[in-house]
Amino acid sequence: MARPEVEFTSDDEELQYAVKALTKAGITVQQLEGIRALKSTGGTGGPYNREMLGLRRWMVQELLAARLSNRQIANVLKVSKETVNADRHFNRDLYTQEILKNQDVHRARLLKEQMELKDMALQAFEESKTKRVLTTGTNGQNDSSMTKIEEGPGDASFLNVAKNSLVEQAKLLGLNEPRPVEQQDNTYRKFLTDLSQTIEKEREAKATDERRSNALPAKASVVSFEPDNETEAWPDAIPLETINENDY
Predict the structure, then answer these.
(1) Contact indicator for 82, 89 with CB cutoff of 8 Å
(2) Which residues touch 143 (CB under 8 Å, ≥6 apart)?
(3) Burial, 100: exposed, middle or buried (Cβ in 10 Å; 0-12, 13-18, 19+)?
């Protein structure tokens, strides 16, 4: 177990150190005594209301900043170490939420600046297409000048500024961050797989129907091998004299 950063020789010295740190933060001795009395009068922590609960959490945070340990803070406030630990977690979560909130505000301000910069760049690009040329001439004793307006392709550097602004907007919105495969939505992919399987089944069924329609019709007949039903005559025997031995 890590030793506390500040060690005391007695409980009174510890309490005096805590009182000094709390009064420096704007907490009065009466408020501290009120928190300490809740434990002794209630037996299980006393009837904490929202105001007293917030005050205790404030004290825990200030005593932590004064480099006291959980055990020392519990002794000063007369609460359990579990209560001090719970207050620490609550304060940390609240602090984290405030940081995230401030980050959102900062991100929104940066996003607005990038959008305004993009609009200004596009407007400057449109204005750069038009060029005014002033020509002067001398005619005797009279000087004359003439302004001529020319149309050009525009300055491409303004388009680069607008493009970079769009890239920064995408970064601020998190649009250019690839998501892990396990976090991607597989609904559309599953739909395509099911559709492909359905089309393949329909194709196989259609091919089977075509093979059946193009097949020759088959007719079944009953063949009997009973002697009484045989009506065809056996062929005549070939005379032996007509058989030529050279044929074999």
Answers:
(1) no
(2) 136, 137
(3) exposed
Q: With beta carbons less than 8 A apart as the criterion, state whether 73 and 22 touch.
A: no
How far is it, in rounded angstroms, from Cα 106 to Cα 98?
12
Return the SS3 of 3: coil
Who contacts 30 (Cβ-Cβ below 8 Å, separation ≥6)? Answer: none
CA atoms within 13 A on the CB side of 159: 7
What is the tens place of the pLDDT at every residue in 42-83?
Answer: 444 556 688 888 899 999 999 998 999 999 999 999 999 999
CB of 112 closer than 8 Å to CB of 168: no
Written as six digits, the tokens of 149 are 């307006």
Instruction: Indicate the domain borders of the chain.
Output: 11-79, 103-175
| Residue 85: partners with Cβ closer than 8 Å, 6 or more residues away | 70
Structural contact between residues 35 and 87, judged by C-beta atoms closer than 8 angstroms: no
pLDDT digits (tens, 9 = 90+) for 182-222: 555 566 567 667 767 777 887 787 778 777 776 666 555 55
Tokens 């917030």 belong to residue: 54
